[in-house]
Write a structure and sequence with these properties.
Number of domains of chain A: 3
Radius of gyration of chain A: 20 Å
Largest interface: A-B, 59 and 45 residues
Number of strands of chain B: 7
Distance between the termini of chain A: 54 Å
CATH topology of the largest domain in chain A: Aconitase, domain 3
Strand content of chain B: 15-25%
Oligomer: heterodimer
Largest sheet of chain B: 7 strands, mixed
Radius of gyration of chain B: 15 Å
Strand order of the largest sheet of chain B: 4-3-2-1-5-6-7
Helix content of chain B: 25-40%
Order of helices and strands of chain B: EHHHEHEHEEEEHH
Number of helices of chain A: 14
Number of helices of chain B: 7
Largest sheet of chain A: 5 strands, parallel
CATH superfamily of the largest domain in chain A: Aconitase, domain 3
CATH architecture of the largest domain in chain A: 2-Layer Sandwich
CATH superfamily of chain B: Aconitase, domain 4
CATH class of chain B: Alpha Beta
Amino acid sequence: MSMGKTLAEKILSEKSGTDAKAGDIVIAKVDLAFVQDTTGPLTVRQFRSSGMGKLANAKRTVIFIDHAAPSPNANLSNDHILLRDFARESGCIISDAGNGVCHQIVQEAYARPGDVVVGADSHTVTAGGLGAFATGMGSSDVAVAFGLGKNWFRVPESYKIEVTGDFQKGVGAKDLILHLIGQIGADGATYKSLEFHGNAIKTMSMSGRFTIANMAVEAGAKAGIFESDETTEAFLKAEGRGKDYRALAADANATYEKTIRISASQLEPTVSRPHTVDNTAPAKDLKGVKIQQVVIGTCTNGRLEDLEIAASILKGKKPAQGLRLIIAPASRRELLKAIDAGLIKTFVEAGAIVLPPGCGPCMGLHQGALGDGESSLSTANRNFEGRMGNPKSFIYLGSPATAAATALKGEITDPREVM
Amino acid sequence: MILRGKAHKFGDGISTDHIIPGRYAHLRSNLPELAKHVLEDADPDFVKKVKPGDFVVGGSNFGLGSSREHAPLVIKMAGVSAILAKSAARIFFRNAINLGLPVLICNTDKIDDGDELEVDLTEGTVRDRTNGSVLTFGRIPEVMLKILNEGGLIPYIQRHGDIKV
């Protein structure tokens, strides 16, 4: 009788053609390999020097220009030229400036349940939201996946995250993942795969699942994977990819290294304080912390659903005096949806700066770098010292609801106060 | 193989943003310029103090954060012969090995900044010649050892044209 498998074991067994168990080292087929504009140039150089010559699968190899989009300086513009030239020579796909963040477009257009996805970006884990084994790697490893269509993987042990009950009003997926990271720590799941189960996950939107998967790496995890279900199928159909759906579930007798149970109804609006994601506190305990810049968007929370929540709080109101409110939609498609829903008008009328789809200020490259001593409340995924362009600044992370409420008050605010 | 050098001690949770922040992304195609900023946000004087052969000694979760291979790359370019840490983030660990830079997992509590260290890669020991203590480090997985012994992943591919475990 064969032992039950986790989602990570199932996918890596299938893609390696072996009976893979946690701890095994396997060579697995890579279904999608991608880079972005800050890791891509090194991947291209490593690929060229490797002697591999041709891409294994040009139509499943994608270059994204999203981190510095549009480019703020000549050096980065020259890196973009290098990437466009490589795409032309190699025949791979390029997603140019303005299309949006790689992780958003990967799930909109490329990743399928059961795929192995590797990207030269740590938040590649996002595609786990639709049932892919997706993991971030460095430029050299992705160069190997470009050329060979495979790479080596250690099959991770899995933690089962069981979330039951209903979220309170004003509380959602972002609060759940921040709470979990606060509970287990920034290295609480190093090398592990997080697998999300329970009725609160079953009833969660795809947008929420992507928010959670996106941040799995902030607990050190190699992957954050959700079972695919009718919600996944409806999402793929809406993206014109109904045929990419397949049902994927962990075996009932799968072996987990650990089970962590979370009651959704007990969760509160949660904020990560500087300078680590696991330094969490309830938003209500941070009242009085002054904020100069609020960022709503990025690959973590820049989808229609996130923008709807923020707009519902901001509609007809103005941010606090002197506060800069920045909206960074995750992709062109999500921006178009927000335009159709009238949300962009709400934001602009409220005095917000609406950025082109892309990474925005998240990585400190452009568009909203912080000044000395300034603090930002952002819906992005990382608050490390210096992350937003200045080691003398402070980054707090929260949900779109917390961000919008904070924008109105000019200090960290529990969104339930304004809803 | 024996490595000798001085310890440069850092605390827990040194992130890839401490090692090489995103604000220098425009220098990623100009590695000599990029390397001048190595570990700048953790110790602005590191680049002046580090000598070829020295060791970067961290605490837990060294290299957490981004997948940027430039993080271990600029540490290697500074002449560092190995990183010692209590634990290392997954992507950073793999990236360092892929560049031929060993990351050795051991209890670094007893090592102080400036200690003279002697690392025996074959024996798996770190001798602190300043305080006399000897530490042992965990084995690097077989597949990574093969990559490390070839000088990194790209040299490995150049030689074998394929990846095997």
